[in-house]
Amino acid sequence: YDVTGVQTCALPISTSYLAWALPSLWFPYNQSCLPPTSLCTKFKFTWFSKVIFLTQYDQFTNMIRGIFERLRPNNDLRISHLLRTLITPQSYSFTSGHATTAMAFSVFVWLFFKERYKTIRLIFIFPLVCAYSRLYLGVHFPIDILTGATIGSTIGYVFFKSHALLEKKLFPSA
Predict the structure, then answer these.
(1) Who contacts 99 (Cβ-Cβ below 8 Å, separation ≥6)?
(2) What DSSP line would sit under 16-36, residue for residue?
(3) What is the pLDDT, as a whole number, of residue 128?
(4) What does pTM read for this prediction?
(5) Alpha-carbon span 172 to 150, nearest angstrom
(6) Which of 18, 29, 126, 146 is the most exposed place for a label (fewest CB within 10 A)?
(7) Cα separation of 101 and 21, whole Å?
(8) Beta-carbon neighbour count of residue 21 at 10 Å?
Protein backbone atom coordinates (compact mmCIF):
# COMPACT_ATOMS: atom_id res chain seq x y z
CA TYR A 1 0.00 0.00 0.00
CA ASP A 2 1.21 3.51 -0.71
CA VAL A 3 0.71 6.53 1.53
CA THR A 4 -2.79 7.13 0.15
CA GLY A 5 -3.86 3.60 1.05
CA VAL A 6 -3.92 2.40 -2.56
CA GLN A 7 -2.40 -1.01 -3.08
CA THR A 8 0.61 -0.82 -5.38
CA CYS A 9 0.54 -4.34 -6.71
CA ALA A 10 2.76 -3.70 -9.76
CA LEU A 11 5.78 -2.47 -7.83
CA PRO A 12 6.79 -5.80 -6.25
CA ILE A 13 6.55 -7.45 -9.65
CA SER A 14 8.43 -4.74 -11.53
CA THR A 15 11.23 -4.52 -8.99
CA SER A 16 11.80 -8.17 -8.19
CA TYR A 17 14.83 -9.78 -9.79
CA LEU A 18 13.13 -13.16 -9.72
CA ALA A 19 10.11 -11.85 -11.60
CA TRP A 20 12.12 -11.43 -14.79
CA ALA A 21 15.73 -12.57 -14.33
CA LEU A 22 15.08 -16.27 -13.84
CA PRO A 23 12.57 -16.61 -16.71
CA SER A 24 15.10 -14.84 -18.94
CA LEU A 25 17.46 -17.77 -18.52
CA TRP A 26 15.06 -19.87 -20.55
CA PHE A 27 14.96 -17.64 -23.63
CA PRO A 28 15.74 -20.02 -26.47
CA TYR A 29 18.97 -19.12 -28.19
CA ASN A 30 17.58 -19.57 -31.68
CA GLN A 31 14.89 -21.54 -33.45
CA SER A 32 17.21 -24.43 -34.28
CA CYS A 33 18.15 -25.05 -30.67
CA LEU A 34 16.48 -27.79 -28.71
CA PRO A 35 14.52 -27.29 -25.46
CA PRO A 36 16.37 -26.99 -22.12
CA THR A 37 15.94 -30.67 -21.33
CA SER A 38 17.99 -31.68 -24.36
CA LEU A 39 21.75 -31.99 -24.64
CA CYS A 40 22.15 -29.04 -26.98
CA THR A 41 25.66 -27.74 -26.31
CA LYS A 42 25.02 -24.30 -27.76
CA PHE A 43 21.94 -23.88 -25.57
CA LYS A 44 23.92 -24.93 -22.50
CA PHE A 45 26.60 -22.38 -23.36
CA THR A 46 24.00 -19.64 -23.73
CA TRP A 47 22.23 -20.58 -20.51
CA PHE A 48 25.47 -20.76 -18.54
CA SER A 49 26.68 -17.44 -19.90
CA LYS A 50 23.39 -15.80 -18.86
CA VAL A 51 23.83 -17.10 -15.31
CA ILE A 52 27.35 -15.65 -15.21
CA PHE A 53 26.03 -12.39 -16.67
CA LEU A 54 23.29 -12.04 -14.06
CA THR A 55 25.63 -12.62 -11.15
CA GLN A 56 28.46 -10.39 -12.42
CA TYR A 57 26.63 -7.13 -12.94
CA ASP A 58 24.85 -7.49 -9.62
CA GLN A 59 28.19 -7.92 -7.87
CA PHE A 60 29.63 -4.98 -9.80
CA THR A 61 26.86 -2.75 -8.45
CA ASN A 62 27.53 -3.93 -4.90
CA MET A 63 31.23 -3.14 -5.35
CA ILE A 64 30.42 0.43 -6.44
CA ARG A 65 28.08 0.89 -3.48
CA GLY A 66 30.86 -0.18 -1.13
CA ILE A 67 33.18 2.43 -2.63
CA PHE A 68 30.83 5.44 -2.54
CA GLU A 69 28.72 4.58 0.55
CA ARG A 70 26.06 7.20 -0.17
CA LEU A 71 22.93 7.13 1.97
CA ARG A 72 19.59 6.46 0.38
CA PRO A 73 17.15 9.37 0.30
CA ASN A 74 14.89 7.65 2.84
CA ASN A 75 17.85 7.28 5.23
CA ASP A 76 19.20 10.82 4.79
CA LEU A 77 17.87 12.83 7.75
CA ARG A 78 18.09 16.11 5.80
CA ILE A 79 15.46 15.04 3.26
CA SER A 80 13.75 11.92 4.58
CA HIS A 81 10.89 13.96 6.08
CA LEU A 82 10.04 15.19 2.55
CA LEU A 83 9.59 11.67 1.15
CA ARG A 84 6.89 9.08 1.44
CA THR A 85 8.38 6.05 3.12
CA LEU A 86 7.04 2.80 1.73
CA ILE A 87 10.12 0.68 2.25
CA THR A 88 13.28 1.34 4.22
CA PRO A 89 16.26 -0.52 2.80
CA GLN A 90 19.43 0.02 4.79
CA SER A 91 22.05 -0.58 2.09
CA TYR A 92 23.72 2.26 0.20
CA SER A 93 22.17 4.12 -2.70
CA PHE A 94 24.77 4.76 -5.41
CA THR A 95 24.27 3.19 -7.96
CA SER A 96 20.85 1.66 -8.46
CA GLY A 97 21.17 -2.09 -8.77
CA HIS A 98 17.67 -2.31 -10.22
CA ALA A 99 18.43 0.25 -12.93
CA THR A 100 21.73 -1.44 -13.74
CA THR A 101 20.19 -4.88 -13.89
CA ALA A 102 17.11 -3.88 -15.85
CA MET A 103 19.08 -1.88 -18.40
CA ALA A 104 21.83 -4.50 -18.83
CA PHE A 105 19.23 -7.19 -19.37
CA SER A 106 17.21 -5.04 -21.78
CA VAL A 107 20.21 -3.98 -23.87
CA PHE A 108 21.44 -7.57 -24.08
CA VAL A 109 18.04 -8.93 -25.12
CA TRP A 110 17.49 -6.09 -27.59
CA LEU A 111 20.86 -6.67 -29.26
CA PHE A 112 20.23 -10.40 -29.25
CA PHE A 113 16.81 -10.28 -30.92
CA LYS A 114 16.65 -6.96 -32.81
CA GLU A 115 17.18 -8.54 -36.23
CA ARG A 116 14.46 -11.12 -35.68
CA TYR A 117 11.75 -9.19 -33.82
CA LYS A 118 11.07 -5.55 -34.62
CA THR A 119 8.95 -5.03 -31.51
CA ILE A 120 11.74 -6.14 -29.19
CA ARG A 121 12.59 -2.47 -28.60
CA LEU A 122 9.52 -2.38 -26.37
CA ILE A 123 11.64 -4.20 -23.81
CA PHE A 124 13.00 -0.78 -22.84
CA ILE A 125 9.67 -0.04 -21.15
CA PHE A 126 10.77 -2.42 -18.41
CA PRO A 127 13.83 -0.41 -17.23
CA LEU A 128 11.75 2.78 -17.34
CA VAL A 129 9.11 1.26 -15.05
CA CYS A 130 11.79 -0.18 -12.83
CA ALA A 131 13.63 3.16 -12.60
CA TYR A 132 10.41 5.02 -11.84
CA SER A 133 9.62 2.55 -9.06
CA ARG A 134 12.96 3.30 -7.40
CA LEU A 135 12.21 7.03 -7.44
CA TYR A 136 8.61 6.52 -6.36
CA LEU A 137 9.71 4.46 -3.38
CA GLY A 138 12.23 7.14 -2.39
CA VAL A 139 15.15 4.73 -2.25
CA HIS A 140 17.32 6.35 -4.96
CA PHE A 141 18.30 9.77 -6.16
CA PRO A 142 17.85 10.43 -9.91
CA ILE A 143 21.62 10.33 -10.46
CA ASP A 144 21.68 6.81 -8.97
CA ILE A 145 19.18 5.76 -11.63
CA LEU A 146 20.97 7.50 -14.51
CA THR A 147 24.36 6.13 -13.51
CA GLY A 148 22.92 2.65 -13.01
CA ALA A 149 21.24 2.77 -16.43
CA THR A 150 24.47 3.95 -18.07
CA ILE A 151 26.52 1.25 -16.41
CA GLY A 152 23.84 -1.33 -17.24
CA SER A 153 23.79 -0.30 -20.90
CA THR A 154 27.55 -0.61 -21.09
CA ILE A 155 27.57 -3.98 -19.36
CA GLY A 156 24.78 -5.28 -21.59
CA TYR A 157 26.63 -4.18 -24.74
CA VAL A 158 30.01 -5.54 -23.62
CA PHE A 159 28.48 -8.83 -22.56
CA PHE A 160 26.65 -9.16 -25.88
CA LYS A 161 29.84 -8.51 -27.86
CA SER A 162 31.95 -10.86 -25.73
CA HIS A 163 29.23 -13.52 -25.86
CA ALA A 164 29.10 -13.27 -29.67
CA LEU A 165 32.90 -13.44 -29.96
CA LEU A 166 33.17 -16.42 -27.64
CA GLU A 167 30.30 -18.16 -29.38
CA LYS A 168 31.99 -17.67 -32.75
CA LYS A 169 35.17 -19.27 -31.41
CA LEU A 170 33.39 -22.17 -29.70
CA PHE A 171 30.82 -22.86 -32.44
CA PRO A 172 32.44 -21.84 -35.75
CA SER A 173 30.08 -23.87 -37.93
CA ALA A 174 26.83 -22.57 -36.44
Answers:
(1) 127, 130, 131, 134, 140, 144, 145, 146, 147, 148, 149, 152
(2) -HHHHHHHHTT--S-TTSPPT
(3) 93
(4) 0.70
(5) 32
(6) 18
(7) 9
(8) 17
